[in-house]
Amino acid sequence: MGITYDTGALLAAEAGDRKIWSIHARSLLRGEQPVVPAAVLGQAWRGGPQPALSRFLRGCLVEALDETRARAAGLVCARSGTRDIVDASVATGALARGDLVVTSDADDLQLIAGALGRSIRLQRI
What we know:
With 125 residues, this protein is of the alpha/beta class. The chain has helices spanning 7-14, 18-29, 38-44, 51-57, 67-80, 85-97, 106-115, and strands spanning 3-5, 35-37, 61-63, 100-103, 121-124. It contains seven helices and five strands, in the order βααβααβααβαβ. Helix 6 crosses helix 7. The radius of gyration is 14 Å and the shape is globular.
């Protein structure tokens, strides 16, 4: 079991939210490498300087949105009736790994997981 961050988690980190920083610190202390899907980073990054976000990303694995992952996310959008490729990439990756997702968008992620007949573990931020 690992952890995946969605855009809301990155925005909270940039804003100095203590809850996300605490979650992140505990994850790193356990030797985990939190995952940040590349689409999430693209949604949160504004060209800098974003020193808090840059510091937060240290120790994270930025997961590429390659052709295989993009196709899987597109399929999930079709099955769930959603259009947000970012949410779909978060859900598909986290479900494949069994990760906890730290999110501000729990309802959409639950909808996507439910369309796949799965449940997803979420921590609201």
